[in-house]
Amino acid sequence: MPIRCVVAALALSVAAPSFAQYPARPIHLIVPIPPGGAPDIAARVLGQKLAEQMGEPVVVENRAGSNGNIATELVARAAPDGYTLGLVADSQIAINPHLYSKMSFDTLRDLTPVSSVASNQFVLAINPSLPVGSFPEFIEYARKARPPLSYASGGNGSQHHLTMEMLKVRTGIDLVHVPYRGGAPATTAAVAGEVAAMWAGSSNAAQIKAGRLRALAVSGSKRSAQYPELPTISEFYPGFENSIWLGLFAPASVPEPILKKLREEIRRALESADLKERFNHAGGLEPLVLPPDEFVALIRRDYEKYAKVVKDLGVKVD
Asked: What global pTM score does this model have?
């Protein structure tokens, strides 16, 4: 037998037990936003469930900045051993590559999609001081407002930003964008009346329930189970739809046995009744269970979709 084959066989024989014992120490789960937003909520709920199932702690680390690029690059550059993972949104994977003229890593090449995790709709929410009670009234009010109404987002190029710009184009209204450093400060601004409107995510459920924000419509293709009384935008503007997904990613070249283990445990967690309840209670997150090939197809579809959206809107972040 050639020497190189002997070496390869020995390497596999040594590595196999470590795969079988995975995980043997804490897993670090990187989140690209400050505590409180949808990826953070999902990471903590899923991380606790995985820790219970796998017998090792899952440590959530919030590494905010640069629209999530800092956290995502940390995952891409980590050792491909399954102990550093990232729970990120579609915006980090499918939007940022089109926003930034220079990125030091490639989201499609340098990351391995492990599993889809959750999906959610945005809720169009306004400060209650606005004299409107429905989505059509808001559009009419915004169309006549002088100066134009302002809206908050979680940052330039964020999902909140692009979705509102898509709504502006579709409805013909003018709104002034005010970017904040994350969804939490954007919500604070909307509640305080510093801005008139925002696309609210799952972490804003308590503000809406308490009446500090007034919900008008949802961005998905169907009505939300959490807000069944709210219409979809597409009921007024057919074809308008923009939802978010969250996924778990690993560095490229993670060994297949580790990926298989992670996928089995994540599917088991996502299909458990208690996780579904905790996701929903956290603000309407819905577990998203897709076979690996379907998750990859979703990533590539959205990558192409947002390439066009960013180009059409002329949005750039440098």
From this structure: 0.81
